[in-house]
Amino acid sequence: MSKLQTDKKDESTLMRLGHILARVLDGFEVTVLSVGTALLAVLTIVNVFARNISKSIYYAEELSILFVILITFTGTSYAARKARHIRMGAVLELLPSKIEKVLVIIISIVSGIVMLILAYYAFDYVKTLRFRGTKTQALGAPYWTFLIIAPITLFITAVQFFRTVIKNFHEKEVWLSPEQQSEFEDEAVMTEKVIAEAGGPEWKAKESK
Fold first, then answer.
1. 0.70 cut: is pTM over it?
2. 127: Cβ–Cβ under 8 A, 6 or more apart, which residues?
3. pLDDT value at position 85?
4. How far apart, in Å, are the Cα atoms of 20 and each of 23, 25, 73, 101, 113?
5. What pLDDT is attached to residue 172?
6. Where are the domains of the chain?
């Protein structure tokens, strides 16, 4: 086997591993976001009824805080992977593709470094809480277990930004995230489906006339 074939095989293996990891992360993030949001809503509603009937659930506030932390930090990673974070999209769309690509790479590098710094400080804070043995007031649970998701998801967010950089170096088109090429990609796909269902090129030709 030649060196070129070996390199292609290794690259193909890495791509497969990357796709598997992306699917695992997607499943984890979507599950946490959907289940966490649903449980937070149920807990809030149940606590309202309990407060009006008898008295509030004593641990409702702490569980609500836990769910908010889970949703917030997991949502950060999801937004970076799906290009749903806040950005100056309108400005970037007006620039030439080469300048847009350069800016996206620079922004992704800076964002990735910032996320790594935040992940380090978050991990250090969690480590301090564990060392001190800080516990929650109502449940008496170790407080660090509520916050361990923060350094993990911040690190994953940094990885997503660096994946965006690699993606833009490997592809000719501008990629806003590892899995999102254009801000209007979803709308474009929906339009293609509508055109196909309406008669494909014939319908499009009629519209152009």
1. yes
2. 144
3. 73
4. 5, 9, 22, 26, 25
5. 82
6. 3-178, 184-209
The answer to whether 136 touches 143, Cβ cutoff 8 Å, is yes
pLDDT in tens, 18-51: 678 778 888 888 898 999 999 999 999 998 888 8
Q: Hey, what long-range contacts does 178-187 have (CB within 8 A, 24 or more apart)?
A: 178/22, 178/81, 179/22, 179/81, 179/82, 179/83, 180/82, 180/83, 183/83, 183/89, 183/93
Say how far apart CA 134 and CA 121 lie, in whole Å. 18
Taken in order 41, 43, 47, 49, the sign of the CA dihedral is positive
Measured CA to CA in angstroms, residue 72 lies from 53, 67, 119 at distances of 31, 8, 14
Q: Which tokens belong to 50?
A: 């309990």
- Give 168's contacts (C-beta < 8 A, 6+ positions apart): 101, 104, 105, 108, 174, 175
Q: Of 117, 146, 116, 149, which Cα lies nearest the Cα of 129? A: 146
User: In angstroms, rounded to a whole number, what is the distance separating the alpha carbons of residues 117 and 123?
Assistant: 10
Q: Categorize the per-residue pLDDT at 189 as very low, low, confident or very high, splitting at 50, 70 and 90.
A: low
* Amino acid identity, position 22: A
